[in-house]
Structure formats: structure tokens, C-alpha cells
Structure of FtsX-like permease family protein:
Amino acid sequence: MIVLKLIRESFLFAYDALRQNKLRTMLSLLGVSIGIFTIIAVYSAVDTLRNNLQKSVNKLGNNSIYVEKWPWVSEGDFPWWKYMQRPVPKLRDYEQLRRRSQTAKAIAYEISIDNRTVKYGSNTVDGAQIDAVSHEHDKVRNFDFADGRYFTDIESRTGAPVTIIGFDIAENLFPGGDAIGRQIKIMGRKLTVIGVFDKQGEDMLGISTDKQILLPLNFAKNVIDIQNEKYGPSIVVRGYDNLSDDEVESEIKGLMRSIHSIRPGAEEDFSLNKSSVITNQLDKLFGVVNVAGGIIGIFSVLVGGFGIANIMFVSVKERTNIIGIQKSLGAKNYFILLQFLLESVALCIMGGLIGLLMVYLGTFAVQAAAGVQIELFAKNVINGMSISVIIGIISGIIPAYFASKLDPVEAIRTN
């Protein structure tokens, strides 16, 4: 009860200091508020951006290795002249990997055709992203269906004139719905729609099925040269769930070197890309941003902390007579120290709450102005308020110590 009463009185003293010296106290609290606002805002923005990018990366498929001509990320200098001389993955590579791999749960050969025009009756969609894939594409990528189904094994092997279209494509070609079973015209050929991808929306990496049209690879083989470099051929390998990326990557690297007859010690003529490479780069980038934001926030909070310390010294001076009376009535030194220390913490918590309110209002402002939903994570709020408490302790410990050491007789005589 004594502790609770002490905490209550400390908050009342803090409120009284705020009420009696509004301008001075508000200016001091402003530094703490801006610091806490900066820390929580930067961390929340970074975490939101990281989560959105991670969702985009996850669409590439977890535990999937991409055998391609070009690397997604290159350390140091980018020797593009070497990569230019590499061959693109061929169907022979794909077949050999399917036959020889022991770690692959699924392997798909994929190409991306330039944006084309799609027609259905008088309705037309320009800029549709057309991709042709082998049968196990659904096992190496992550997507859902709003309607319909995936290719059957027979449709993939025979190159049947069937297709799966994105949600936006379906809405534009078939405003009334019911796209399944309709025939659309692509690259001068008629194809029957057997599936519609679920709505995904735009993401930060531009990975979405909303404007995608998927064709069986063997159907595309009858229309274009699917091994042509301009279509960006790639082989996607999905490892078994109980295997790590490194285990799958190690086996695929050895098999590809064998398939391409690369001598021991010689450099590979292919790249093995995986989503974790992008994630690692994002972690490095966001780590720097977190540190920079944290440093800026800490300096702002420290400036506010000096202001709080100044208020506490003034408060001790103004209440010296009261301190003397309390000590003469038997108040212990630790009681006086805790009283002023908790008052300092209370002031910093007030500043932290103001900063938190600023962040909360800022999330609505960003959403209204840019349409971006900022997620206010509990861990960032807890970290911000914890820093407020720490700054309150640091700012108030010296004034509180001086107050606790005052001589009661001299303190009572002070006017």
C-alpha cells in the first residue's frame, strides 16, 4: 500500500509540475515525445516494409532453388560480361535433373513470354503476363484458386489448349463472371479457361498472379521456341520439406556441373538463386535502417532527458522545505529518492505516451495519403515505452539522490 501510495503521489507531483509550468514542462516533454515517436515510427515502418516484402518473397516458394543464367544478387563487382556468355537452362538440363535428383520434391521448367494482348469476343486486355510452365509448377510456387483447377498430367504432357488466368484478367474479359469453360484468344490461338487465380493484389516486388496467364509448356512449344533466351528460361527445384536449402542447393550444384561437364575447380556457367538470398539482403538493409533510426531516436530522447533532469532539479529546489518536513516526520532517504525518481519516470512516460499518440495518428495519415497500412507492432510500443522509463530513471536519479541527502534542519529553514 505504501508503494502504491508513493507511485500515486509521484504521478500527482508530475502532473502538478506540468500544470504549474506548462510551457517549460511541455518543451522538455517534447524532446522525449519526438524521440519515442522516431523510434517507434522507424521500427514500425521498417517492420511493415519487411513483412510486405517477405510476403512477396514467399510467393517464390520456400525451399526452392532457381537454376538460371543470371544471379539475383552479386557480391562486390557485378561481372556481367561473364554472365552474358553463359547458356540459359535447357530442356535437357531439366530432364537430367528430374531423372537424377534425390533431394527434389518437384522440378519445373518455366519461361516468361512478353506481355501480350488477350481477347474474348469484343473484350480485350493488353499487357497480360503470359508464362508457360511444366506440370509441377504448382508444387514449386505458392498460389490459390478463386475458381477452377490446375492442369492435369495429361493436359501438360499433350500440350492441351487450356489456360489458367489471373483474377484481373478474368474480371476484364468476363465482367459477368463465369470464366471457366470460355475460350480466349492468345498469340493467335484459342485456349479454354480451366482456372482463375485468387486475388492477390499488388506487392512490393511486382510478384502477382492477378495479370498472369498460365499455359502448359508443351502447348507453348508448338507456338514458340521455349529455349530462346529472350523468354528467360529457368528451372525451379523444390526440395523435400525435411531438407535444408543448403542440402538441396549442394546436390543441384553438383548435378548441374556434371550435366554441363564442368571440370573440378572451374567456375560454374549457371546461377543457383533462392528466396533466402533476397531475405538476407533485406535483413542487412533493414538492419542499417534500424540502427540509424535508433541512433536518431536515442539522441532525441537524451535531449528530452536533459530537459526532464532540469525540471527535476527545479522541483527539488522548490520543494526543499517540504522535503525537510517529510524527513523530520521520519521519512527515510529511500522514500524521498523514490518519490522524485518516480516523478521523473512519470514525466517521461507522459512524453512517451504523447509520442505513441503521434505514431498512432501518423499511421492513419499515411494510410489516407498513400494507401499504405502501417502495422503498429506491440514489441515496438513496448520497446519505446521501456526506453521512456529508462530515460526517466537516468534523468531523475541525480536530482532524486540530492533530494534524499538533504539535511532536514537546513531544508526546513529554506524559503
In short: Residues 2-56+280-413 form one domain. The two ends are 32 Å apart (CA to CA).
